[in-house]
Amino acid sequence: MKHHINFKVNGDDYSLAVDPWRTLNEVIREDLNLTGTKLGCGTGDCGACTVLLDGRSVSSCLTLAVSVNGKSVMTVEGLAPSGEELHPIQEALIQTGGIQCGFCTAGMEMSALNLLNQTLSPSETEIKSALSGNLCRCTGYNQIVEAISMAADKMRDNAAEKEEQ
Amino acid sequence: MESRFKIVGQDVPRTDAEVKARGKALYTDDMKLPGMLHGQILRSPLAHARIKHIDTRRALGLPGVKAVITGQDTPKIKYGNWRLFPDTQDEYPLAVDKVRFIGDEVAAVAAIDRDTAEEAMELIEVEYEELPAVFDVDLSIKPGAPVIHDYCPTNISVNRKIKYGDVEKGFAESDYVREDIFNTHSVSHAYLEPCSALAQVDLDGRITLWTSTQVPYIVQCLLASTLNMRENDIRVIKPFVGGGFGGKMELRAWEFCAAFLARQTGCPVKFTLTREEEFITGRRRHPMKIYSKVGFRKDGTLVAKDLKIQLDGGAYNAMGPTATFLCGNFGAMLYRYPNYRFHGEHIYTNKPPASAMRGFGAPQSLYATEIQMNMAAEELGIDPIDLRLKNAQVSGDEIPDVATISSSGFIDCIKAVAEMSDWKEKRKSLPAGRGIGIGCYSFISGGVFNWFNTQYPFSAAEVRVFSDGTAHLLTMASDIGQGSDTVLKQILAEELGLKMGDIRMTSADTSMTPQADLGSWGSRVTLMAGNAVIDAAKKIKEPLFGAVSARFNLNVIHDIECVNGRVQSKSRPDYGLTFGEAVAMVQKANRGEPLVARGSYTPRGKGLVTPAFGFGAQVAEVDVDKETGLVEVKHMWTAHDCGTVINPRSVEGQLAGSIQMGLGYALSEQFVMDGGKTLNTNFVDYKMPTASDMPPSELFHVETYEPEGPMGAKEAGEGLASPTAPAISDAVYHATGYRCMDLPITPEKILRNLKKNK
Amino acid sequence: MRLPKFEYFEPETLEEALRLLAEWRERVCVLAGGTDVLVKMRNGRLKPGAVIALERISSLNGIGFDLRKGLTIGAGAKLSDVTSHPDILRYYPAIARAARVMANVQVRNMGTIGGNLCNAAPSAENAPPLMALGAVVTAASLEEERRITLDDFFRGPGLTAMKPEEIMTSIFVPTPPANSGASYQRISARCGVDIAAVSVGAMIMIEDTVCREVRIALGAVAPVPMRALSAEAFLKEKVWSEEFLREAARISADESRPISDVRASLEFRKQMVAVMTQRALEEAYGRAIKR
Ligand SMILES: Cc1cc2nc3c(=O)[nH]c(=O)nc-3n(C[C@H](O)[C@H](O)[C@H](O)COP(=O)(O)OP(=O)(O)OC[C@H]3O[C@@H](n4cnc5c(N)ncnc54)[C@H](O)[C@@H]3O)c2cc1C
Ligand code: FES
Ligand code: FES
Questions:
Q1: HSE-CB of B540 using CA atoms within 13 angstroms
Q2: Does pTM top 0.90 for this prediction?
Q3: CA-CA to C53 of 20 to 30 Å: which in A9, B94, B412, B752?
């Protein structure tokens, strides 16, 4: 039996009937056509499917879509809605070369955001452990770690500027 | 150093980075077509068996199932990348007579959704007659061993020999000879994007296939032959690809099945593998058994090397023949061996096929070379660095009948890395449990041997220029994440004096981009496609220069250049036109014909291996916990020679990525097998290094200019896959006295050895 | 693979959940964070007729601490909440550590401590420190609520002392005695996403350099997380010394019953039990004499 769910994705309201055995990953990719979120393993190991659920990073491949009823999801597409300026995390990843094949990128960005939501001055060790659930086979992570640290600086500066105003 | 280039050598951000950062880049599985069906493959649960009967009726009866096919429904045409030798083409898209490994493709289903396709799998009944299987190269070549392919009763599918000088004489003249056996293991490419293919049939029966591949042209040709269709009726498009590392360089069963089922059902059909399928059945790096004998003079001069390598190829040849060739060529690299002999055997076993993987025979072969070098250094009482310096290959060295090294910065690399790492001091003074070690590499910049038997150039490019000052670059070269599209644009922008943003690019669509390109592997793209781009650019510049010289009465054509969006005199820049104006002039003088040029590159007279070799050296420092045997890599130093660095950020990224793979290869990654069954089929148990496992690392570019390369460039992506394992291994030896002859280096092996030494 | 088909319930009270459970019995599967359940369903190892999600039962999710009594962790508390809870960090660092080193950020944001125990993997990360600290779980059914010590909880891989109609509601850990300290140590080959090949939780109480109380629990070296009773007996009432420590570590290795599998061999696991036991006891001792 399909369940009716209402939830927000990147600020937009969705109302959907879903089979209970479908994962959040399947629903956002196949039904909402938000294909920026990837599927690298389906078993919680690689992080390519990471999204924020009520502000916390989770693996969308291990989350049942029915269970997000009433909740709020953020995917990579929500970082900088089409046409808008890039998020500092995205900008930094582009600049440092932290994107190669790009398959891990969306997940990396969401994990980075999860971290930077908690602290804007993470140490290198903290950044690396924040990425413990995100595998990358191309970059060796160095440029990604560098990017997150750059983004943190920028976001801190932005926050300070706002405060002054 | 003042660069001669404006765009080449700069930190140009990758042109595809923004779409990827925004999550807007479409990979194959992101695509959806109206009426699309979902495919699924049924795989063999047995390592070796005869297929007696397949009953698909129940599966076909399941509502939502549109088609079920088995090998019997297909044209039963074998394929394989080594078209030049049809004997080596040993694989059917779907098994016809036998299955030869666990995971071999037996049947395929197309259904309205994935759930239904999966359900249908369980309803296909296959009756097998199990056959004795063999999982070990030594057993496989014994008389009386199960024969895996009827055409090959010995189970040795490829023999490759290289010989120059007189090895026996060399050993007789040596003061010191040593003989060792090394075993290397199998690892996974573990690209993050599981393979995916989507096929659509036009009204006129032609097929379009979007697929996650490194080799669109090869897929096009082999798909045509296995479907019994004409090449030109197949269009292969490579969308964004989430990494390949050699694992996506052949036609694969799901590509065939997608096309075949699309033709049969009239609907688009998509197959996407699960990670588990990737691990259970995926291609992998060849395990090799390496017998190596080397002879030196007392002063450390190398005299002779006798190398025998047995490759465990698994059930099919895949890219094994190339690996068999290359591991022997790499055995002759790095150092000068006046006398050299190699015998390589590619051996079938009932395991998932091994194939190309980053380094393509080099990581295994050079592991043996490098470890043996260190063992010899110790016994000869010479520092490993000095022993290398003494024997290192230099520009102009020749490997008889095989290759000439047109440029080598190897000696500078060794010196640089020794200095960066403070080698001499650390080698003496590190405390117990700490160690440093060295590993070196050489690698090819693309292959020259035409095993695919193509009539086309190895790489081709088409450049179209427009009066608005823009250009359109078309090539079949495949960016699979390494950034080749950006590099090729950089090269064109440099040649035409344009900005990156002025260049539009169409790549890797076999119906639109010029024939042909052999794909992304063997570090061939920068050199080969780069040269093709330069060739095309030169042909574009010719009429532009002609027009400008006519307009300004400049009679020396080579005094003109394309720079800053202009075509102008070098000495009098005001004598010139904007790029667009020059294009318009040429067109007007030419009845409005568009200004288009084709360029190509096929290596000629470059021996048997490659037009150019990259070199490098790497030092690792490790800390070994003597109670647990855990190895922590504290630091890596790398110096490499990739000729001209076209994109420094990209090269750094390739390095860090290689270290990650090398680290995994040395310490944590391996397929755990029970006979023919792969036991670790997820990323928890297949242990690829995470961010926290990565050591800090420093890189030094040794500047050389490769005459054969575009703007002096050569390979930068794969060679680096080799030095990390021997460097770490040597450092572990320095720290603990454990010399690893059988990769990987596990805590258990270290502890066992520590106990023994006590 | 896709997930199998099932019905889905999302009760908001424990009672409602228990009623559903009683109704569906063996054909139902309780779902907390789902990080074990979904993986098993995907691998085809679990095909329930229905799933009861516990997430919306807010009474299961809290964490409370009372210095006189102890710590109560709701079975549904997320692992990431356990690792960041100030009282847990202060009074139960070994528990915080186990929850912190396991899995990865995303899994800790989803997974629960109750799920980790009920899943009853031999390697269940939270079991050794909780056992070492004398934890007791509460299981509720429509009929009764009962307490089960963690020592009696695990019955085999994937098997627990709970009945099919029961739900775990909370885990209680007494306040650690004065002069005591605890530690959690594990070994695995990689920093991120990894499951322990061997893990040890230890608690000791020291009085005038005499080891008055000691509890050692081993993970991933037997079908269930187990106490190293002989090693404990050996250390008890002994004056703390390097030599005894090493001997206790050796004994605990002897009494462990590991197997060889994808993650490590039997011999290596035994060796590591000794090393990890020694390290855990050392750290616990350091903490004990500081307090
Ligand atoms: C990538 C990855 C890495 C992991 N790494 C580790 C690791 O390092 N160490 C480790 O120990 N584990 C690890 N795990 C396993 C898993 O994450 C943990 O066991 C987690 O704590 C399970 O909690 P959960 O809430 O997700 O449980 P669920 O999957 O929801 O449930 C697990 C089991 O417990 C039952 N259950 C749950 N709650 C209750 C309850 N209140 N009453 C009765 N029964 C209940 C369920 O029916 C099910 O049988 C890993 C998992 C993944 C995907
Ligand atoms: S796809 Fe979800 S973690 Fe890999
Ligand atoms: S960029 Fe390819 S996996 Fe990270």
A1: 36
A2: yes
A3: A9
